[in-house]
Amino acid sequence: MANFGWTRVNKPAQAEDAASDLRGLSDPAAFLAALDKVVPRYLDLADNGVLVYPACKRKSGDLLGDISAIWEHTRLEAMRYVPMVPRQDISLLVDPARQAEMIDAFLRQRAHDKTVVDFTGTAIEDYGIAIYAGLNWLNHCGALVGADPQKFSGTLRSFRRVMVVAQQWWAIDGAAERCRQLLEARERPPLVFFLLWAECTNLAREIAIAAAGPNATEDTISRMRAAEDPEQLT
Fold this sequence. Notes:
The protein is mainly α. It contains 10 helices and no strands.
């Protein structure tokens, strides 16, 4: 797994902050900027053996082996492909004026089943490659822990359907203004980045529940089902 130039891990306590920069954010561009910092930090911890990787393989006695950390880090593992895109053009993911363009390109793109990817150097294609890779990673992790197969049946098709609905949303007059209003209210309009984040959040939750096995009490599972994000469990 790539080291991304992060070679120094001084204390296991650094693992506690592996994804902290992502917490409490609402601005999509800020999310992407934080991912650029968090992804190499997290992968470096995994490369250096500080954290069990992938997160779904952690046991309760492992560092950050609790169910909320597994949820958070599994989502991060899936989202890591986005900042890996070599020629970034984040407006494709977060600019209302470019959502129709990005969604149209994604829906035209042929799905792939890889978690190790070759990027093309064209951002609009590479973001599609990254999205599919992240969803395939979640399918892989779900299989590793024996997650409910119904939750992972047709993952790629399901996300494509989500994108079709988003395509229709952006085609309605006044969509950009509605997007602005939602962002001001700290809500999440159907920007491509937010759609992927939500899908990864939901699937990572199922993986974390399955990974916890009998350690996940009914109360814990109920709290996870009610939570929209792992930070709400801490």
